[in-house]
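OP here, attaching both records as promised.
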Amino acid sequence: MNIVGIVAEYNPFHAGHRWHIAQTRRRLGECAVVAVMSGNFVQRGDCAIEDKWARTRSALEGGADLVLELPTVWACASAEWFAWGAMSILRAAGAQAISFGSESGDNAALAALSLCLDSGRFQAELRRFLEQGLPFAACRQAAADALLGQDVAACLTRPNDNLAVEYLKAARRLNWTPQILAIPRVGAGHDGGAHPEFPSASFLREEILAGRLEAGNPAALKYNERGILTRLRAMDLPDFEALPDSGEGLARRLYQAARRAVTLEEVYAQTKTKRYAHARIRRLVLWAALGLRETDRPPSPPYLRVLGANDRGRAALKAIDTDLPIITKPAHGRGIALMELEARCTDFYGLCRRHICPCGWEWTHSPVIL
């Protein structure tokens, strides 16, 4: 069976995602679409607006066949780690192709960038710009521009293209060469607004949180703000230094901000400088709130966790040839360190919902089957 992989957050699932899946099938023909989806927390350092099982159901109803979980330690991480976790799962699942939304739709430019960023020439150029004291993102952009030209380097300024470059880098490091499908995005852009057919996910989240769009029992860090501030104030500087991606003085700034700020937005604002991206700060705060440390993230995913499937997805699941355990029932994850950690994250997620949920949901919720 031909398997195509998609990396997604589906936060929430919307018409643009349905269109992307349909376009993928139009290009590949008959295939099983396997989505690796972030669990209850997402890369921007916040809760997913709906829980992972609700989003799984929407994905299956929208055209996906099998949904596998991207654990929190990769889902809420830098683009490089996010891509590494997702590509590792798709490779283990036997995907022959990967499909992703892209602002440019330019396979050649994305491939050229992925090769460039792994080259010695790029590292030399990057060091040259970093020595000028510029922010890392600006230095990365300038180095790519110097080597490949402005048109190709511009992909790094576009969120989906930037992630696509990381997907290609990760696949190459895994010695994996899947077919690549860069599907041009339609409708509102990333973090865009309303659109008659394809509104952005950020617009839909705002509508849900404002009560103008129904979504059951939505989640957001703001619903548990006091609890998160309590956790931050209880941490010492070494605790912040144990968080991933907390170097360059960021741990100390976050520690100091946590002791002064009275809202999460103040924590972010008082920590931020031109050197630190806002999303990086939000992720650190979330890792701190979840009680996670850099050492909690293993080198690669230790299992495949099934969140849901339809008939074609179950057939694809049976065809997977991997040494990794495949978790289809919650009880199968008992005793696996990362699964136990994921259960702890889900318990915390329950505190971040509009209406608080009890503990233990990770162990009682079976995969969604359509």
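Record two, same layout:
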Amino acid sequence: MKVCVVGAGIVGCSTAYQLARLGCEVELIDEAARPGMVSSHANGAQLSYSYVEPLASPGTLASLPGMLLSRNSPLRFVPQLDWRQWYWGLQFLAACTTRQVQAGTQTLLQLSQRSRDTLMDWMAQEGWAVDYQQSGKLVLCPSEASLQRQRRQVQFQRALGCEQELLDVQACVEREPALAAYAGRFAGGVWTADERVADPYRLCLELAGSARRLGANVALGTQLRGFDVHAGRVRALHTSRGTVLADAFVLATGSQVASHAAQLGIYLPVYPIKGYSLTLPLQDERKAPRVSVTDLSMKTVFAPLGGRLRVAAMAEVAGYGLSIPPHRVAQMLASVDTLFPGACDVSDPERWAGLRPATPHSLPIIGRRKYANLYLNAGHGALGLTLAAGSAVALSEEILAAAKA
């Protein structure tokens, strides 16, 4: 069968590659000139297979007033004249319950574990050069209350198959000696040995290249113009390069998926959460982290990527703009100087802003919607890199099962 995948970010590229592996005729289209140029380009680079707790939680709800009032807060809500933002916000508040967090965590863990195993298989077969490594992940808790909250989450996740350790400050420094100068600024941490890192942009390039070698047609620089619908099916896709006919269509267009689905009369609760990153060359590897580090007080991640450090932070519900305010860059540079002084060359940081396509409950939307041959693979939020491989396998199974029915 022929499947048209719209969107060449990490989710779309993974979907196209998996379908091509299964013998489908695949058409992968994207309006960008290269794969992975939008939300996947320079995100946090962490493959967080165990740290998947939904953003909407009682803890987030309790901290919202203080976090939203400060211009420098890592989490901000900037009101827009857009009913979708306000409706999404109300749905987010409704999802901030313990029951929702536990149900969401269980669902995300199942998907992340499948994604981990799938990507391991792909890497073993393909040998892609994407700075992929199992470095482990250390999550730093700023206070004893934060550490106790993490303790409860670790205990809950242990019953779901996650292997994590709670560490005191000294044990954290033993795991990551570069944190020695920061030891008095946090109460402890959570260590997960199985977590990994990978360069998301390079992975997109490799996935698209491998899909092409398997016979897929990768049509970049191609704008989506509309859909041709007949008798409960999407019959064709109109693009700037002509009309695409296919047996099935997949929308994997990240933060734009809600507007694309709306053209087909489908409402999707997906709204962008803006984040920022810096990529810095290392100047002293002895002072740089060897493991992936997340600092909860700053809501900042530090991922070592083959002679570089990827620093990613912030979550802004602020519309679709991609400007990079200087004070956000200054915040991230200050975090590097605080945790890993002297580790990086900060004279010319590679700046980036991206939009995480998030659902209110943090669960991605995977599967068929409204039309017999229309499928969605979207809404992964900050976990797109983590969940892409597993999502691609799950969706591919559904598409092929429907074709055989």
